[in-house]
Amino acid sequence: MTGWEEARAIDVAGLSYGVRIAGGVDTARAAVVMLHGFSGSSEDWIGTAAALTEAGFAGVGIDLPGHGRTGIPAEPHRFTMAETARDLATLITTLGIAHAHWMGYSMGGRVALYLGVTEPARVASLILESTSAGIAEESARTERRIRDEAFAAEIAARGVPWFVDTWEALPIFGSQRGLSKEAHSEQRARRLRNNAAGLAGSLRGLGQGAQEFLGPRLGSVHCPTLLLAGALDPKYAALVQRMAAAIPDAEAMIVPGAGHNIHLEQPEAFRRAVLDRLDRLVAAPDRKASLPA
């Protein structure tokens, strides 16, 4: 397994984005852009990137604002879903990619879904892992925004180690207690490399309380869409099945033995599902559907 082959810093409207690339974006069958979850980075996708390149695809991992090697925006509005989506559309154009297959986990999946709604010409397909369309009820969304603001203030005040301890103890990650010591330690080390100001800004701008509820717009997503959830994550298993029913060309897949983070807890099953999906969409080895003519 080789994983990422190249790291770049790409400026988009004054914000430096950290980008990792595996495979040749100008020679691969298609480009697959990978978006991590909250407190993650493109490093989380190293195993998936290796599997993609072995199958002839190019993998592009992007650190979302306030994470990894991407800068922390000085203006709070640069953290928002709309601004982030516009930045990502510009970024792939800079890489010479006309449209891509977008894969996102949790928060990254919500960003990818937003791109599917607002930038359909840039999206060949969507692979959404443990993702929602946001919060439907306005009162619940407001309550979540208030909680997220309080949590963001605590992160900024108490620091990243406190955040990581708190985050790892959440019930949604309970299934990860079965991870190997090595896998858990590696994930914890990646999380500890975060910056408190970056995490706080991301939570305020990209949290579920801050984003538009996309439920009424799911019918406008016409690209092929695969929604995955773990069988040990019943909340998201139900969510992805409801979303799949609302998206015209969508399929839901429930992965046995996995909780919220399928690509960490059941990596082989996750990669097999992703590659099977991409192979169905990009049939010929020399087809470059995601690249400019």
Automatic annotation (TrEMBL):
Q: Which residues form a coiled coil?
A: none
Q: Catalytic activity annotated for this protein?
A: 5-enolpyruvoyl-6-hydroxy-2-succinyl-cyclohex-3-ene-1-carboxylate = (1R,6R)-6-hydroxy-2-succinyl-cyclohexa-2,4-diene-1-carboxylate + pyruvate
Every copy of the AB hydrolase-1 domain together lies at 31-267
UniProt keyword annotation of Transit peptide present: no
Q: Which domain of life is it from?
A: Bacteria
Q: Name one GO molecular function term.
A: 2-succinyl-6-hydroxy-2,4-cyclohexadiene-1-carboxylate synthase activity
Q: Which UniProt keywords apply?
A: Lyase, Menaquinone biosynthesis
Q: Which Gene3D superfamilies match?
A: alpha/beta hydrolase (3.40.50.1820)
Q: In which pathway does it act?
A: Quinol/quinone metabolism; 1,4-dihydroxy-2-naphthoate biosynthesis; 1,4-dihydroxy-2-naphthoate from chorismate: step 3/7; Quinol/quinone metabolism; menaquinone biosynthesis
Q: Does the keyword Lyase apply?
A: yes
GO BP terms: namely: menaquinone biosynthetic process
Q: What's one Pfam family the UniProt record gives for this protein?
A: Abhydrolase_1
Q: What's the EC number here?
A: 4.2.99.20
Q: Which family does it belong to?
A: Belongs to the AB hydrolase superfamily. MenH family.
- Role: Catalyzes a proton abstraction reaction that results in 2,5-elimination of pyruvate from 2-succinyl-5-enolpyruvyl-6-hydroxy-3-cyclohexene-1-carboxylate (SEPHCHC) and the formation of 2-succinyl-6-hydroxy-2,4-cyclohexadiene-1-carboxylate (SHCHC).
User: Assembly state and interactors?
Assistant: Monomer.
Output this protein's name. Putative 2-succinyl-6-hydroxy-2,4-cyclohexadiene-1-carboxylate synthase
Species the sequence originates in: Eiseniibacteriota bacterium
